[in-house]
Amino acid sequence: MRSFDYLQPSTLGEATAHLRSGTEIRLLAGGMTLLPTIKQRLAAPDALVDLAGVPALTGIEDEGCSLLVGAMARHAAVAASPLVRSRIPALADLAAGIGDPAVRNRGTIGGSLANNDPAADYPAAVLGLGATIVTSEREIAADDFFLGLFETALGAEEIITAIRFPVPRAAAYVKFKAPASRYALVGVFVAQTAEGVRVAVTGAGPAVFRVPAMEEALAADFTPSAVAAIGIDADDLNSDIHAEAGYRAHLVTVMAKRAVAAAAKGF
In 3D, which of 63, 117, 56, 128 has the Cα closest to residue 90? Predict the structure, then answer.
């Protein structure tokens, strides 16, 4: 593995300055994807900027109608937070089901979103709840953030600082996970929000996406039967050694029904 500089800023300003100091500078949040990528020699940064020492990027705050979750909040912290469990239990449950204990105690929500793995769990919650990604430069609506496979709207010198989650009336996340990695073959997040019903799917396609037909049906009748007959086109879905596109399309409807049933219990 090639050598690199290891930088430990204590403020967001220092982190931003480091990021702007060269072309091969990478941010280190949890490192769940970045470090293995470097070890496999698929990336060779000149320096890593570790965000773990920036206090402004941690913490979970109650803003009344929303929760503000710091970008460096570990999955385990989100899962165990009494505030998250009381206001958005579906988000806590999602965090509790990510990977294994080692991943949950190192991985961060900001790192997951910046990486935008097509099978990651957090993108489903962010898109399903209509959250806002707060960065060092602006605020980005969830609908505008996820652009494609490992691609987001983040600029080259932009750092995620927090995520603002609206508190829904009801919500649930259900996934069919790969037994070894626990990544979602298909995961569906369903939420009743102030803006209406939202359905977000992860694991099935190149990036997380919404299902308008299901949202419309659930707005009229928030029951599993409302989405039971709504199929998903398999043409643009992922097909790999874990599951073919047609099977993933089938799972979207199955997981959506289960998510609606789980969310309805919160009424």
Answer: 128
